[in-house]
Structures are given as structure tokens and as C-alpha cells.
Amino acid sequence: AALFMENARKGSIVSRANSIGSTSASSVPNTDDEDSDYHQEPYKESYKDQRRRAHTQAERKRRDAIKKGYDDLQAIVPTCEQQDFSIGSQKLSKAIVLQKTIDYIQFLHKEKKKQEEEVSTLRKDVMALKIMKVNYEQIVKAHQDNPNEGKDQVSDEVKFNVFQGIMDSLFQSFNASISVTSFQELSACVFSWIEEHCKPQTLRDIVIGVLHQLKSQLY
């Protein structure tokens, strides 16, 4: 009986100890899981909302900027303001606006090149006129300094005779060298005649011969 009472007392103590340990363990809060979920979950949702809101604002700004760019192109490019009968009163699409803009830029490049060529031609004309002006000024000044200098100059008839003699000599060789059977043969003969009969030394000999002939006729 004493042994039974002792074992019962020990079993009661162990049971109470287990009960107390279980109660204590259940009463201690789970700081690793529960507190973490309680504090971090609202922060994660807030961060996601902020990122979503920032992305939405950035996308809206990007779309507004693109829309403003297309509106500016339609206002700047003249062809975008013209009525397109194939489209009617519908709003121009972005593809059409871009194509019209490209066409207008190409047109401007062509106009710029054309104007640059015209400016270059005008500059050459101005330079030639300046040279002619200087030469005429020198001629006028020389005539004013020596008014009797031009009395012994040759007449226009003599100059024409010199020109006629040169041309007659060239035409003789031209007529003897050129064939008019076909246009292709004519072209080939012309180039061949120029290379053979229009060399500087040949022309010099012709001019000298014409001048000697006129000199003998005049004197």
C-alpha cells in the first residue's frame, strides 16, 4: 500500500508538470511567425501599391508625351492639315502622320539642295560680274590715260575675216572626216575629229596661217 501511494504521488507530480509545461508553452507568443506576419504583411502590400502607382503614373506620362508629339507633328506638317478624301473626316492615324512627316522632310531636303545649287550658281555669277567690272574699269582707265591708243586698232571686218578663215579651215577638215550614215557613226567621227584636228598645236598653226594670209592681203 505504501508503494502504491508513492507511485501515485509521483504520477500526479509528473502529470502536473506536463500540464504546467504545456500551458506555459501555449501561452508564450510565437515571435518568429505571428509577429512577423502581423508587422510585415501590411508593409509588403503598401510597397506593391506604391510600385503599381508609380508605374501607372510613368505609363500615363509616356502616353501623354507620345500624344503631344503626334499632335505637334500634325500642327507643323502642312500635309497633315490638308483634307484627305480617302480618309474623310476621320482622325489621322499615327502611321499616316509618320508617313506624311517623312514625305515632308524628304521634300524639304530636296528644296534645300535645290536652293543650295541656286545659291552656288548666283555666287559664280556674282564673281564673274565682279571680274568683268574690274576689267571694264581697267579698260576705261587706260582709254582715259591714252585716248589716242585705239586709232590704230583693226576694224571689225578684219576680225571677222580672221574668224572666217579659221572656221573655213576647220570646216574643211571636219567635212572630210565626218560621216553622216548614222547618228552613232556621226558621234564617233565628231570625237575622233576633235582629238585629231582640234589640238592646241593644230589650232595654233591654223591661226598663224590665217593671219599671214590676211597680212599679205592688207599690205
UniProtKB/TrEMBL annotation:
Keyword tRNA-binding assigned: no
MF terms (GO), sorted A to Z: DNA-binding transcription factor activity, RNA polymerase II-specific; protein dimerization activity; RNA polymerase II cis-regulatory region sequence-specific DNA binding; RNA polymerase II-specific DNA-binding transcription factor binding
Listed transmembrane segments: none
GO terms classed as biological process: positive regulation of transcription by RNA polymerase II
Sequence ranges of Basic and acidic residues compositional bias: 37-49, 56-65
InterPro entries named among the record's database cross-references: bHLH_dom, HLH_DNA-bd_sf, Max-like/E-box_TFs
Residue span(s) of domain BHLH: 50-108
Compartment annotation: Cytoplasm; Nucleus
PROSITE patterns (UniProt xref): BHLH
Chain spans, region Disordered: 1-65
Subunit structure: Efficient DNA binding requires dimerization with another bHLH protein. Binds DNA as a heterodimer with MAD1, MAD4, MNT, WBSCR14 and MLXIP. Can also bind DNA as a homodimer.
Name this polypeptide is given: Max-like protein X
Organism: Indicator maculatus (spotted honeyguide)
Native organism taxonomy: Eukaryota, Metazoa, Chordata, Craniata, Vertebrata
Gene: Mlx
